[in-house]
Specification:
Layout (H helix, E strand, L loop, with lengths): L6 E8 L2 H11 L3 E8 L2 E10 L8 E6 L12 E9 L2 H13 L8 E3 L2 E7 L5 E6 L25 E9 L2 H11 L3 E5 L3 E5 L9 E5 L12 E8 L2 H13 L8 E2 L3 E7 L5 E9 L24 H6 L7
Parallel strand pairs: 1-4, 5-8, 9-12, 13-16
Antiparallel strand pairs: 1-13, 2-3, 3-4, 5-9, 6-7, 7-8, 10-11, 11-12, 14-15, 15-16
C-alpha cells in the first residue's frame, strides 16, 4: 500500500524577487537552494529556499510576478504555512528576532495543539512557527551551516499547512479516501489530517468558511506539493486521482523531480512530486543557488532568459 510521506514543497507568488530573497535568506536564515525560472513561463524567477540541499519537506518556493496585485483574502485557498522550529526557547528567540527586524508578528499562541508564533512576510503571506519540541525530523534533512540564525533555533522544515474551504466534507474525502491521510481531530468547522501518524511533517489543517473565493496576488499560495518516493509511486497516484474523477495533468518531468497536478472539488491545487533526483542534479552542494540553473530544454535560451530577469545579488 502506497502512502504519502509528508510535504514536498509549497509554492507562492511574490511581486519582488530581491525583497523575497532578502527576507527568506537573510532574515529567516534559509538557504536559497535553487535560482531557476518557471518552466511554463521562463520570463519569471522560480526561487527555492530550504535546508542544505533543499530536501523534500523543507522547500519554500516562489514565482516572481512583477505585475501581481494584492491578495484579496477569501475561502477556497491555502491560507497559512507552518514552519517547524526545535523548541519553546526557539519561539522566544524568533519573537526577539522579529522585533529586531521589524517583522509583522503576533503573540505566542497555540495552533493545532502545539505552541506557536504567527508572522507575516513583507507581502502579507501568513506563516506560523511551530514548536517541534525536540521530535525527530526525516533523516535526509541537513542543516545549512552558513545560516544567519543560531544553530539551535534554525527553521527545520515545513509543518502544518492550513487550507480554508467552503466544503470541508469534500476536502476530507479527498485527503482520506484518495490520498490516504488520517483524520486526527474534527469539529464542526475544522479538521486536522496527517500523512504520518502523530507527526506535524505532513499535517494539513482544514477550516470551513463560506464567502467569496480568495483572489490571489502577491503573498498568496499557488499550490501544495506532497511527496512520493519515486516515479513508480507517482504513476500509482496518477491513476488514483483519475479514478476518483479528478483531472490530472499526467506526469510532468520538472528535471529536479517528476510530478502531476490536480484540483480537488474546492479548487485547491495539489501537486504530487517525487523526491528525486533533487537540486544537485545540475549543481554541487557547495554551489547550490548561486547561479541561474536552467533545465536542459531551456539552456539554449539562457541569454534571452537572463536578459529579462532582475539581478538578485549585488
Amino acid at each position: 500500500m502506497h502512502h504519502i510521506p509528508g510535504h514536498h514543497h509549497i509554492s507562492m507568488l511574490t511581486k519582488n524577487a530581491p525583497l523575497n530573497h532578502e527576507f527568506y535568506h537573510k532574515k529567516l536564515g534559509l538557504r536559497r537552494v535553487k535560482k531557476t525560472v518557471n518552466q511554463d513561463n521562463p520570463s519569471m524567477y522560480h526561487l527555492f529556499y530550504g535546508d542544505l540541499t533543499g530536501s523534500a519537506g523543507t522547500e519554500l518556493s516562489f514565482f516572481e510576478m512583477p505585475a501581481a496585485g494584492r491578495t484579496v483574502r477569501g475561502t477556497n485557498a491555502i491560507t497559512q504555512i507552518g514552519l517547524l522550529v526545535p523548541s519553546s526557547d526557539s519561539l522566544k528567540y524568533w519573537k526577539q528576532r522579529f522585533e529586531q527586524y521589524e517583522v509583522t508578528h503576533g503573540d505566542m499562541t497555540e495552533y493545532a495543539g502545539r505552541e506557536a508564533l504567527p508572522f507575516d512576510d513583507p507581502e502579507g503571506l501568513r506563516l506560523i512557527l511551530i514548536n517541534h519540541d525536540g521530535a525527530e525530523v526525516p533523516a535526509g534533512w541537513a542543516a545549512w551551516e552558513d545560516s544567519t540564525v543560531e544553530q539551535e533555533h534554525r527553521i527545520l522544515g515545513m509543518g502544518p499547512v492550513e487550507m480554508t474551504v467552503r466544503n470541508l466534507g469534500k476536502m476530507a474525502a479527498t485527503l482520506t479516501e484518495v490520498l490516504g491521510y488520517t483524520e486526527v481531530s474534527r469539529s464542526e468547522h475544522e479538521a486536522i489530517y496527517q500523512s504520518i501518524e502523530g507527526q506535524a511533517l505532513g499535517e494539513i489543517v482544514v477550516k470551513q468558511q463560506d464567502g467569496p473565493s480568495e483572489r490571489p496576488g502577491r503573498g498568496s499560495v499557488h499550490h501544495l506539493a506532497i511527496r512520493v518516493n519515486n516515479e513508480e509511486e507517482l504513476a500509482y497516484w496518477n491513476e488514483a486521482v483519475i479514478e476518483r474523477g479528478f483531472q490530472s495533468t499526467g506526469i510532468i518531468d520538472r528535471f529536479y523531480f517528476k510530478s502531476l497536478y490536480f484540483r480537488e472539488a474546492n479548487g485547491i491545487l495539489f501537486e504530487i512530486a517525487t523526491d528525486g533526483p533533487g537540486f544537485t542534479a545540475d549543481s554541487s552542494v557547495e554551489e547550490l543557488g548561486k547561479r541561474l540553473d536552467l533545465p536542459p530544454f531551456l539552456e539554449g535560451k539562457r541569454a534571452e532568459i537572463e536578459a529579462k530577469l532582475t539581478p538578485l545579488d549585488s
